[in-house]
Design goal:
single chain, 564 residues, alpha+beta, Rossmann fold, Jelly Rolls, 2 domains, three-stranded antiparallel sheet, 35 strands, secreted
Length: 564
């Protein structure tokens, strides 16, 4: 215990909230005040970090303040009188929270409002917020202990859906800074909302685990956010840390984030976790939607990834079984000179979970609602794979990878795109050993091949001249992604091996977008190919020399005539 007897008379002591009501009745105790933080007066470090335009040091300057965007925050209650969020947060009449655990719970208002107030401040706070013009609607689904129920969250989503039907607002973001065990029902409700043109952004969770095991972060239609620390590495605090894996879409800052404290109307505090990270992305998303208000959830995610900082996370800081599938991207605000809109051709890679190890076991990767699959590839750690194929189920394309003989499991990697402005179809060869050719006036955006024998060899170079086709080796099926539009043009770019490296890369130039990625080798040692950002990555093994083949596409400049 620390005592004070000079400037004032008092003492500092750690005390449970359960005994606070008794302590305040002690003789000679006039009042009790909780210890709080004080801060140097500068732009919070996290806001400086997400700015890509660094030339105006000490100034938080954005393309816009997100004022056209409404955010529904499903959280605890919020202290709306805080100077950071006063007149920026509206408390709805919805409330669905369970009773607090324990015999005696000290329902101190500042504790009940703590989480929601901090998150609202990160989204649109006057000095700590990312998008300071965005309006926030508070929907209470968590109690004073930060606990809620799946049924309460479902009721909250139902309330928002009903509100949007009676008073349509667009653009709108639904922010979900909570995580529970896997729930098929909660995932289905989130998916239905996205399909009705609502953006849902969720925290990945703080369990240092696979995000695919939890909800709503495991729902593919939800934009799921992991957390990184000050050094842009996965957030880890003691035994807890950010969830990872292929269900995470992008990471954001979530360590020691300064925002509004519910202790008083002018108090601030720091908190850490994926809730803080997802609040950053909600703010960034508000800025992007303010620029392009008609963007769908799929288009918004592509824009978020386009503006993110890539290859900044040390792969060795991730669990070994999630290093390939976890996105190496940290969200950032768009540069003030950016002209990117929802109609631009943008693509991302979607990884499946790893297949079983038995021969010819399969695994599947799918695109989101509103995305088009422009190619499909596969990857195996030991190179034993039987290729990949594209199937259609319930009107949706699926990238299906097949494990090879003696394989340790295979991944499917779908190339999912928005802004293609094209009618696309996936064609397969008429029989094994024959290539697949696109119809006239179609562009070839990617090739795949599969073998029924359990081992696939590399196909020949795709054709991109007067004939646009995917060749096939003997005994194998080939698949071609063919898109029909007068504005799209595609071409091949390849890069051979250099030195002794088992990894070969080739990137599309600026203004071109990578839609397909293949690997060729002189032997049988290609472990597979996958796209990362605008780069095609090919891994070989056993001393084989590989070649990376990228299919690069773009919308033809208006002054350039068609080559058809």
């Amino acid at each position: 215990m620390l005592t004070y007897s000079g400037a004032f008379h008092g003492f500092l002591v750690k005390m449970s909230s359960d005994v606070l009501h008794m302590a305040v009745k002690l003789p000679h105790v006039e009042y009790i005040e909780e210890d709080s933080s004080i801060f140097a007066q500068s732009i919070p470090w996290n806001l400086q970090r997400i700015l890509q335009n660094k030339h105006e040091s000490g100034k938080y300057s954005l393309p816009n303040d997100g004022s056209k965007v409404g955010v529904y925050l499903l959280d605890t209650s919020v202290q709306v009188t805080h100077r950071e969020i006063e007149d920026r947060v509206m408390v709805t009449d919805f409330n669905s929270v369970p009773e607090e655990d324990g015999v005696r719970v000290h329902r101190q208002a500042s504790q009940c409002d703590s989480h929601g107030t901090h998150i609202a401040g990160v989204v649109s706070g006057r000095d700590s917020g990312v998008a300071r013009g965005a309006s926030v609607n508070s929907v209470q689904v968590l109690n004073c202990q930060g606990k809620g129920t799946v049924s309460g969250a479902l009721a909250g989503l139902e309330y928002i859906q009903s509100s949007l039907m009676s008073q349509p607002i667009r653009p709108v973001i639904v922010l979900l800074p909570f995580v529970g065990g896997f729930s098929r029902t909660l995932n289905a409700a989130c998916r239905k909302m996205v399909e009705s043109d609502t953006v849902l952004i969720a925290a990945a969770g703080n369990y240092n685990d696979d995000a695919c095991l939890y909800s709503p972060d495991s729902e593919p239609e939800v934009i799921t956010i992991g957390a990184v620390n000050f050094a842009d590495q996965p957030l880890s605090t003691g035994t807890t840390g950010t969830n990872v894996g292929h269900c995470v879409d992008v990471f954001a800052l979530g360590d020691d984030i300064i925002s509004a404290s519910s202790d008083c109307s002018t108090c601030f505090t720091t908190k850490s976790g994926t809730s803080q990270a997802v609040a950053h992305v909600a703010g960034i998303a508000a800025v992007l939607l303010n620029l392009s208000p008609n963007s769908s959830s799929a288009e918004l995610l592509q824009q978020l990834l386009h503006h993110s900082v890539r290859q900044i996370i040390n792969p060795e800081s991730l669990p070994l079984n999630h290093r390939l599938t976890t996105p190496n991207m940290v969200a950032a605000l768009p540069d003030s000179t950016s002209t990117l809109i929802g109609e631009d051709l943008l693509c991302r890679s979607v990884w499946s979970e790893r297949s079983a190890v038995k021969g010819l076991a399969t695994t599947t990767a799918r695109c989101r609602h509103g995305e088009e699959m422009l190619s499909c590839s596969s990857f195996s750690q030991n190179g034993a794979r039987a290729g990949e194929r594209v199937e259609e189920r319930d009107g949706q394309k699926e990238c299906v990878a097949v494990n090879g003989n003696g394989g340790h499991g295979v991944f499917a990697v779908a190339r999912c795109c928005t802004g293609h402005k094209a009618q696309c179809q996936m064609l397969e060869s008429p029989k094994r050993g024959e290539g697949t050719e696109c119809p006239p006036d179609h562009q070839l955006t990617g090739c795949s091949s599969s073998s029924s024998s359990g081992d696939v060899s590399d196909s020949d170079l795709p054709l991109h001249g007067s004939r646009r086709a995917c060749p096939a080796k003997r005994g194998e099926m080939s698949y071609a992604s063919c898109c029909h539009t007068s504005s799209l043009e595609c071409r091949l770019k390849e890069h051979g091996p250099t030195g002794l490296s088992e990894q070969v890369e080739v990137s599309c130039e600026d203004s071109w977008t990578l839609t397909g990625c293949q690997g060729l080798s002189r032997g049988a040692g290609v472990r597979g190919a996958f796209a990362f950002g605008n780069t095609c990555v090919v891994h070989t093994s056993g001393g084989d020399k590989g070649t990376a083949i990228a299919t690069c596409c773009r919308h033809r400049p208006s002054h350039q005539p068609s080559d058809h």
